[in-house]
Structures are given as structure tokens and as C-alpha cells.
Write a structure and sequence with these properties.
Shape: globular
Structural class: alpha/beta
Oligomer: single chain
CATH superfamily: Ribonuclease H-like superfamily/Ribonuclease H
CATH class: Alpha Beta
CATH architecture: 2-Layer Sandwich
Number of strands: 5
Order of helices and strands: EEEHHHEHEHHH
Length: 181
């Protein structure tokens, strides 16, 4: 596995619907980019934050709020457009040369899809680490397992709220930190 000395870990929250039934005329939109940085030399996790994103192709419904805790009011108060969020990541995290990671491929695919839709540059390098796959491979497991089960396997507690982008990114960083030791 090729990595830089610092790895950005992201976790996205996106608009969602009960039974994955996307209403006609709407598309999945990123509504939170949880991000933190893992320094492989000092073994520290830093710069954890949530970047709330205004959905442009869909609306946040009660099901989505129940799952993520993200309300339309929170987005009205703290949200920025996705393109601005990408610029913020490039500026604050100097993301372009760094390896980035997520727990699974959804985050990577959604970033690529939304950047493509807007015709903007991806705010990350092309060096992506799928932490879920790295975990499965490291422990020679037959199947992929979820974030909470992976932490349990490592005898680590989940910190924060599940389906909070920043908390999920932080917990994924703890798993990556452990398997890269």
C-alpha cells in the first residue's frame, strides 16, 4: 500500500430515503463531509471537523434527519455549497498531494460523482485507501465488516455519534492507525 506521511480520512453523509427509494427528480447529495488527518509519523489524529453542505439536487427529509441528525435548519445555518467545501478542503488540508481514505468506496464514488456533475476538480489525489478492504485483508477475513464491528474486533470503543461524518471519519482513522502500526 502506497501512502503519504499524512492521510486524510473522510466520511460523507448524504441525502437518503427510507428503503433507498429516491424520489423522482432528486439525486443523492452530499450534506456533510467529515474529515480528519492521520499523521503516520506522530501517530496522531487531528483537524477533525464537519463541513456541512447545501444539497442542490435533493431535500433533507425526516428519515435522513433521524439517521444523521442533520436538519434543514442546520444546513441553513452552517451549510456551504459543495464547490466551496472542496476549496475549503484544498486550502485547510493541502489535500491534493495526500493519500485519502474512507471506510468503503461510497465516499470516493460520491465525491467523484458530485464533482463530475458540477464540472469541478476533485479536491483529493488519486491515491485512495479503502479502509474497509484494508481491514478485511489485514485480518484475513472472508467478508467486509462495518465500522462499528471493526472497532469491536479491535476492542476499541466507537467515539461520538454513528452517522456523524466527523465522528465516523475519526473512528475510521483509529482503525487505519491500528492496522498501519
Amino acid at each position: 500500500m502506497n501512502t503519504t506521511n499524512e492521510i486524510l480520512i473522510i466520511d460523507l453523509e448524504a441525502t437518503c430515503w427510507e428503503n433507498d427509494r429516491i424520489p423522482i427528480g432528486q439525486k443523492v447529495d452530499i450534506i456533510e463531509i467529515g474529515i480528519c488527518k492521520l499523521d503516520l509519523q506522530s501517530k496522531t489524529i487531528s483537524q477533525k471537523q464537519s463541513i456541512y453542505v447545501i444539497p442542490e439536487r435533493s431535500e433533507i427529509n425526516q428519515f435522513c434527519t433521524g439517521l444523521t441528525g442533520i436538519t434543514p435548519q442546520l444546513i441553513d445555518d452552517k451549510g456551504i455549497y459543495f464547490e466551496e467545501a472542496c476549496e475549503k478542503i484544498k486550502e485547510e488540508y493541502h489535500s491534493m498531494p495526500l493519500t485519502w481514505a474512507g471506510y468503503g468506496n461510497f465516499d470516493k464514488e460520491q465525491i467523484f460523482e458530485q464533482c463530475d456533475w458540477l464540472g469541478i476538480e476533485i479536491p483529493f489525489s488519486y491515491e485512495y485507501l479503502n479502509i474497509m478492504e484494508e481491514f478485511r485483508s489485514h485480518f484475513r477475513l472472508q467478508k467486509m465488516i462495518g465500522l462499528k464491528r471493526a472497532l469491536y474486533h479491535l476492542k476499541m470503543d466507537f467515539e461520538g455519534n454513528h452517522h456523524s461524518g466527523a465522528d465516523d471519519a475519526y473512528n475510521a482513522a483509529k482503525i487505519l492507525q491500528k492496522i498501519l502500526e
